[in-house]
Amino acid sequence: MNASMTGERLRSSLSHASDASDASDGPLAIEAVDLVRVYHTHTGVIRRRPLDVEAVRGVSFDVRPGELFGLLGPNGAGKTTTIKMLITLLLPTSGSARVMGYDVVRDTTEVRRRIGYVFGGDRGLYDRVSGLDNLRYFAELYGVDPAQRDRRIAALLELVGLTGRENEKVEGFSRGMRQRLHIARGLLHDPQVIFMDEPSIGLDPIGARELRQTVKTLVEAGKTVLLTTHYMFEADALCDRIAVINDGRIVASGTGDDLKQAVLNRTIVEIETFGVAPEAVDRLRDDPEVIAVNTEERDQSQILLVQSERGPEITQRLLGSLGDTRIGKVVAREPTLEDAYVHLIASTTRSDGAERAAALG
Amino acid sequence: MALSAPRHLGDGTMSLPRSVRLIWWVTWFNVRMLLVSEFFVLLTFVSPLIFATLAFFLFRLGHSTGGQTLLYAALGSGMMGVWSTTLFGCGGAIAWQRWEGTLELLVNAPTRYDFILAGQTFGAVIFGFAGILMTIAWGMLLFGMPLTSTFPLLLPLSLFAAVVSLGALGMLIATSFVLYRHANALSNMLEYPIWLVAGLLVPIATLPAWVQPISWLLAPTWGMDAIRGATLQSQPPWFAIGMCFALAVVYYFLARVALRYVLHLARRDATLDLR
Fold first, then answer.
1. pTM score > 0.90 for this model?
2. Residue span of the structural domain in which A306 resides
3. Residue B274 contacts A where some CB pair is shorter than 8 Å
């Protein structure tokens, strides 16, 4: 879909936040205070033992109306659990949260009227009927005015670039088309706050770029968007503010520039290796000048990202620590937001895995 | 312990026309979904034909070959199919929606979830009743079964009463599927015993006395009685029709109470997204 055309279509098909009953100078769009969520599960098959897993451990943040707020973190950090508490699908174990001034525990219907929920992946659609049937069905569930339903669906189909494909069965849709249909579904009732849980997961680069453009346009139309992602560049390119979540806690928040400050005085040495042994990586980590080492797997090689305050000066020593490992390219560069993210995650991940399953009971 | 939350079924301010429209839309959508499912088409339209064929031959072996007996067997076989479709259509549909990831979206819609569930179960029951027509046509074509009705004007009301009571019972059963992933074990267990206990093929009077009170609590018993009463009996089936509606009211209110609790547990225990 054409990005600029998309913006015009979206702006015309969505009511602006200031038109809505909850004015932007009213309550915060989202307010989370000390949210905690513990999952009660068990281990073992024959001798089942109860186990409490803390997925979210005291998350607090707020999002202003019209803001695009990013919740950034690795898999299992607590992003989806946080979103599900905010959209009323999960009860918090403790803490509180409000969306457009309504409590997510008590005022579920009021919250649900004002939110849209879009998630990534292949699920959440009826595969064996058409895209149009999916949208008509959800329009009824979301209480869209019957007199406006078809016009609204047509506008949203045009917005997401599915006009002309709406009568095809969803099971034949590509991953990108499904994601676009998800977005149209989430916007059917013109929500004020849109929760997007890793919407770009599995999309090809062009699909992901189109999605980012759609998200931008939503914000330009006055919508509040909470976006979760584990793609740093996506959060950096889109979000007004970012909160980094790891192990169920917010470990940093602010603008992209704020987060970069944490690693501004560092240098990153990228070392391309072929078949590097874990012991060699450990030797790098043991170097007193090295702050963090992260490994990225490529097809045939591994890229070691070594953070230190004196990168270029210790490069030879770093290469020496790798012993007989076959070395490719070596580059020293300034830190990026991704490095800041990696640093934050690495420095806040609990070392003791058992602690992840903190027994409460 | 999760924070205490009010237990309700969603938007309590929905108008009657909006509620009726919602139920109608969900019913229609569910019928369409069942129509594109090979499993349900086989279950609803082919299984009763096999049951009916077996029944016709069994009755023939027992030297009961009158037209009334054949119609009795055809209606019973058709109702067996209706019960199977109700059971799997109500429960299985929720299990399948959980798998597809749409259950969360339905529960999270700003509307009444009991109406959504009612539409889904009525869709399954109405779909199942189409199988009865197939069974009757099968009996007429292959076994020369006559199609008669002693109270033709009461037949539509009997069918409607049976649909309503089975739909309400389906709704009650479906609540367990909202909470538990493996509730299909329950539905599998309930299929054959209900065929027997509800008197779908053999009269309830032939069952042990202690079973009969159980039969009286079941919608298929009275639904079958109402339909057979309107087609085969000499007395109008008013009592059976009344029992269908009375049981439907009881089932519906039990389902509502159960659903409030189940939705609360689902939010507390995070079971909606489990596959």
1. no
2. 265-334
3. no
